[in-house]
Amino acid sequence: MIVGEVVRVALTALRANKLRSLLTMLGIVIGVAAVIAMDGIGRGAQTAIKDRISSLGTTLLTVTPGQVFGRGVAAAEDRAKLTMNDARAIEDSAKSIVAVQPEMSRTFQVQFTNRNTSSSIIGTTANYLQVRKFELAAGRMFTSQEDVARQRVAVIGPTVLTNLGLETPEAILGEPIRIRGMQFTVIGVTKTKGQSSPFMNPDDQVLIPLNTARFRVIGSDRVRSISVLASSEEKIPEAMAELQKILRREHRIPRTRDDDFSIRNQADFLATFAETTKVFGSLLAGIAAVSLVVGGIGIMNIMLVSVTERTREIGVRKALGATKINILLQFLIEAVVLCVLGGLIGIALGASGALALGRVFSWNTVVSTQSVALAVGFSVLVGIVFGVWPARRAARLDPILALRYE
Predict the structure, then answer these.
(1) Host domain of residue 43
(2) Cα(171)–Cα(342) distance, rounded to whole angstroms?
(3) Are the C-beta atoms of residues 314 and 327 closer than 8 Å to each other?
(4) In 3D, which of 243, 390, 406 has the Cα closest to residue 327?
(5) Residue of 187, 194, 212 lying closest to 106 (CA atoms)
(6) Same-domain pairing of 38 and 127
(7) CB of 229 within 8 A of CB of 59?
(8) How many CB atoms sit inside 10 A of residue 381's CB?
(9) pLDDT digits over 266-319, tens only?
(10) Beta bridge partners of 99
(11) Is residue 398 part of a domain?
(12) Does residue 260 belong to any structural domain of this protein?
C-alpha cells in the first residue's frame, strides 16, 4: 500500500465520522486559538511599549522616591521623598546633564462650560516638552517667567480635549477651564503620544506651571519624580553617579544605609519589560502545553475507540496483504491530520480573535509567523506522540482474531 493510498484511506475514515472528528479536535482548537490570540496581543503590547520607551529618548534618567525601611519593615512615618530642593541641587551641581524637569501630580476634576472630566494635573517646568519628547498640536507651552509668576495657564492633552466635548485643538485655545475651583486659561494642546500602560495615559493630563501647582493647586513641596537628560549616552553612567552622590548628600544618608531613591534609565525599563514579557511568555507556554496535552489525550482516546470499532476492517486489510507498517501509518496519519486541522482552525480563530480584540479595545496586535509555525509544529508533534499507541495497537492485531471480531 503506497503512502498516497494510506493518506486517502485515513481521510476517508475521518470524513465518515465528521462530528466525532470535530469534537476530537476541539481541545487542540481551543489551546492553539488561546495561544495565538494572547501571543498576538502580547507582541502588540511589546511593540507599543518599546516604541513608547524609545520615544522618551535614550538619554532620559528618571529619579523617583524610594521607601525607608527599618528592621526590614517599611516605615510609613518616615517615607522617603523628593522635594524641590533636590531638583535645585541637581541643577546646580550636576555637570553631565543638560536639563532637569521635576514634576508633581494629582488627579482633579477639570471643568469646561457644562462638561467635566477627571484628569491627571501635572505641575512641571517649562522644559517638559523638551525632556519628555512631546510636541504641540496647537498653541504654545508656558514659559519660565509664567512659572515663576505662578500664572494660571494650562496645556492639555488630546484625550482631555475629547472628554470636554471638543474636536479641534484651536477650539479651546484661550478658553477658561476650572481646576479644583480655580480658573485656568488654556494656551496649548499636545499631540497624541499614545498610552503606554493601563495605569498611565500621557494624553489624558493637564500641564500647569510647577510653582502654580506647588502654591495654588496641590500645596506641597514634594515632587513625584525628577527627570534628567544626560548630555550624551556615553555620559549616562557618569550622570547617574552624580545624581546618586548629590541626592545622598541632600538626604544626609550615611554610608551604611541604602539609597532612599531610585534612578532609572531607558535601558533599565527595557530590561524590566523584557523580564516581565519572559514571565508572561512562560505562563502562556504552560497554558498552551496543558491545553495541547488535554487535546492529545482526547485524540488518543478516540483513536483507541476507532481501533476497536474497525478491528474487523484491520483484519481484512491484513488478509489482503497490508503490513504492520501500513496499518501503523494509516492510524498515525489520522491522528496527525486531526491535530493539524485542529491547529489550523485554532490559528484562524486565534488570529481573528486577536484582531477583533484589537479593534474593540484599540490595542495593538501582531500575529507573527513564528507563533503560527510553532503552533502547527506542536500540533503535528501532539498527533505523533498521542497517535503512536493506538496505531501500534492496530498494527499488532492478529489478522485471524481480527477477522473473527464481532
Answers:
(1) 3-52+271-403
(2) 54
(3) yes
(4) 390
(5) 212
(6) no
(7) yes
(8) 14
(9) 766 666 766 776 677 677 667 767 777 777 887 788 778 777 777 777 777 777
(10) 229
(11) yes
(12) no
